[in-house]
Design brief:
The protein is mainly beta. It has 3 helices and 14 strands. Helices cover 8% and strands 56% of the residues. Strands 1, 2, 3, 4, 5, 6, 7, 8, 9, 10, 11, 12, 13 and 14 form a 14-stranded mixed β-sheet that branches. The chain is globular and about 45 Å long.
Length: 243
C-alpha cells in the first residue's frame, strides 16, 4: 500500500457501547504484544457504531466528501512502545455499508472492512443502530437514550472520567488478512466532546456468544455518544505482533 492519505470528516454520530470484561478472557482475544488496558480491575471492550460525513482528503473541500455507516468491535489495549507504554484500541473486525470503504480499506487507507447492512433510527433523545454482516457472522442491535449524567457504570465514575479514558485511546490497530501486521489509524480533533447515554436495549452476537465470553466474563457497562464532531484521521505505521 502506498503512503495513505490523511483524511478529514465529521463524526455525525458515534455510539461507544462499552463492556466490562474479565482480563484473562479479554487477553485471549488479543494478538501477541498487546495486553488489556484495565479500569478498576476490568478490561474494556465494546462496539463503535459510527456514521461519518464529509469524508475526504484533508486538502479537499467538505462538499465532495462521502457519508457512511460503520461499525468496529474494539478492545482497549496497551503495549510497550519505544518511549514507554502506549494506549489505544485493538479492532478485530470492522464493517461498513459503504462500497468505497470496503474497496479502499486496506488498499488506499488502513483498515480492512467487511460488508454489513445497517438500520438506523434517530431522534434528538434516542438512537437505535442495528447491523448484520453479509457473511452472517455478526449481528448487533443497540438502542441508547441520551442522558445528562453517566449513571450505573462499573468502569467510570462519571462522564468526565469516561471521556478522558477514550480521548487517551485514539490510536486504533485493526486486524488484517495478512496475519501479524495490524493496520493503524489515529483519530485527531480539537473539538472532542461526548454525551452520556443509557442503554435501553442491546444485543451482540459477539459479546453474547458464550464460546467467546463464558457466562459472567462480559457485562454491558455503559454507552457514550458523540455527535457533530469534526475530526482528522492520521495513518499510523503498521504494528507487527509476530513477536
Amino acid at each position: 500500500m502506498r503512503t495513505p492519505p490523511r483524511l478529514a470528516s465529521v463524526i455525525e454520530r458515534r455510539l461507544l457501547v462499552n463492556y466490562r470484561v474479565d482480563p484473562e478472557v479479554a487477553a485471549g482475544h488479543l494478538p501477541a504484544g498487546l495486553r488489556p488496558q484495565l479500569v478498576r480491575g476490568s478490561a474494556v471492550a465494546g462496539i463503535c457504531l459510527l456514521r461519518l460525513g464529509s469524508v475526504r482528503p484533508v486538502w479537499a473541500p467538505a462538499v465532495i466528501g462521502l457519508r457512511s455507516e460503520n461499525a468496529a468491535h474494539r478492545f482497549a489495549v496497551e503495549w510497550d512502545g519505544p518511549d514507554g507504554v502506549e494506549t489505544g484500541v485493538y479492532i478485530p473486525r470492522r464493517d461498513t455499508a459503504s462500497r468505497v470503504n470496503r474497496w479502499a480499506g486496506g488498499r488506499v487507507f488502513p483498515g480492512e472492512h467487511g460488508h454489513a447492512d445497517f438500520q438506523v433510527v434517530e431522534t434528538a433523545d434516542t438512537v437505535r443502530v442495528a447491523f448484520a454482516t453479509r457473511d452472517g457472522s455478526t449481528r448487533v442491535d443497540v438502542t441508547a437514550e441520551i442522558t445528562d449524567t453517566l449513571d450505573g457504570s462499573g468502569l467510570f465514575a462519571d462522564l468526565d472520567e469516561a471521556s478522558a479514558f477514550f480521548r487517551g485511546g485514539t490510536k486504533g490497530y485493526s486486524a488484517t488478512s495478512d496475519g501479524p501486521h495490524l493496520d493503524g489509524m489515529q483519530l485527531q480533533t480539537d473539538a472532542w466532546r461526548v454525551e452520556a447515554g443509557r442503554v435501553a436495549s442491546a444485543s451482540s452476537s459477539f459479546f453474547d456468544d458464550p464460546d467467546r465470553f463464558p457466562p459472567g466474563s462480559a457485562a454491558l457497562d455503559s454507552v457514550l455518544v458523540m455527535r457533530d464532531v469534526p475530526v482528522r484521521w492520521r495513518p499510523l505505521a503498521p504494528l507487527d505482533t509476530a513477536c
